[in-house]
Amino acid sequence: MRIRHLIPAFWLGTLGMSAAVFGLPNSAFAATENESAAKKTTDAETYEKLQIFADIMAIIKDEYVEDVEDQALIDGALNGALSKLDPHSHYVAPVAFVEQQEATKREYGGLGIEVSSEGGLVKVNHAIEDGPAYEAGIKTGDFITAVDGEKVRNKPLDEAVKGMRGLAGDPVTVTVLSPGSLPRDVVVVRQVVRGRAVRHRVEKGVGYIYLETFNNSELTSDIERALKSLEAELGGTLPGLIIDMRGNRGGLLDQSVSVAGLFLDGGEVLSARGRDASDNQRYHAEPGELYPDMPIVVLVSPGSASAAEIVAGALQDRGRAVVIGRRSFGKGSVQSVIPLPNDGGALRLTTQRYYTPSGKSIQGRGIMPDMLVAAREDSGEIRKRFREDSLPNSLLNSDDTDYEENYGDILYPPETWPEDEDYQLRKAIDVIKTSNYQRLLDAQKTPLER
């Protein structure tokens, strides 16, 4: 995408005179002068408003009931102005910018474990293979009872694990309780480890992959490894695949393109269009898809956004998958992060909109499932979900046709459905195993490829 540079006001007059020299009529010259004068008037008004801002800042510094930091006021003013554009444009202060860069990489200094709270203790749900905890002998199912001698029993989970994080290379001693064994102290040297964004398992004879986020530069490779593992577990073949992106808030654009490309034989995945045609970009899958005849169901929810919607929309538009669940969030805009060299922070600015291969904008509309399935019974669901178009100053979609869910079409679990069973997942498995899959595929309104 090209970067626009602001031209100082005095250049406008020079450009106008140059045009006159090359033979434009007097009326054109007069019009150029009028435009230049109008521009100067607008600039003068803007400078007056900025002076008012400076005056208000000075009054606040002198008269407000408490001391106020200049930076806090300036940051608030910048974000107040940017929030008038859309909900996703904002100023990122230097410290927050560094933290966001680290979070985007999904890397941290820690032990390489995923944990939850159980029975007042910290339970290890997963120890990342080759991570520091795994190498030190900590396994899935172990419990952590203390960190550097400080007991964690009955502490909030965030507080209990706080001591596990720290600088890479520094050791930490955790007390580990394995089932059937006595507690033992284990010294683990913290490392920068990559979080796990992919979980996979076999569900009733069908491959299942859960994608937590797209903020992982190795996501596509992780999915390929998961597919190989599922294939081996199912005897060398994959009769069907469920890609669960419920609650996935998105992440890296390149990963959404390459993940969708795993199941497409070339062709467009999405386009991103800006204010000018020169800002438009198209993203294509690489030729050669995996498992071309395998049925695929994609699960989405109102919490599925951005990169997750790109993947769901591409596979749906291209006739490669059936989408099940509830209408997705509708985050169909692209933000460019522009570092501010004189500040150390950055400007996160909306510069483009996303479009699915059929040319439909995701913005404010999201992806509509081929089969509407609720997670739980009607009495427990909020029908009017919080989505992108609920946000203040959200970008409008030029397609104003009705895109609300038809509540009469939504399948709800029976009253007797067990609370611990995933109704949406069960329907996805049923679709793959029956003729409903092809029926739903044939009913898609805009498949671009069969």
What does this structure look like?
- With 450 residues, the chain is an alpha+beta fold.
- The chain has three domains: 1-52; 107-194, Pdz3 Domain; 198-443, 2-enoyl-CoA Hydratase, Chain A, domain 1 (Alpha-Beta Complex), CATH 3.90.226.10.
- It contains eleven helices and 19 strands.
- It has helices at residues 10-21, 26-63, 70-82, 94-105, 132-135, 157-161, 219-233, 253-261, 307-317, 423-433, 436-443, and strands spanning 90-92, 107-110, 113-118, 121-127, 143-147, 150-151, 171-177, 184-189, 191-194, 198-203, 206-211, 241-244, 268-273, 281-284, 296-300, 322-325, 333-339, 346-355, 371-372.
- Helix 8 packs parallel to helix 9.
- The chain is globular.
Summarize the structure.
With 450 residues, this protein is of the alpha+beta class.
Strand content: 15-25%
Number of strands: 19
Low-confidence stretches: 1-31
- Helix segment count? 11
Under CATH, the topology of the largest domain is which? Answer: 2-enoyl-CoA Hydratase, Chain A, domain 1
Oligomer: single chain
Sheet bearing the most strands, described?
6 strands, antiparallel
CATH class categorisation of the largest domain: Alpha Beta
Give the count of structural domains.
Answer: 3
**What name goes with the CATH superfamily of the largest domain?**
2-enoyl-CoA Hydratase, Chain A, domain 1
Rounded to the nearest angstrom, the distance between the terminal CA atoms is: 33 Å
Q: How would you sum up the global shape?
A: globular
Q: In the CATH hierarchy, what is the architecture of the largest domain at level 2?
A: Alpha-Beta Complex
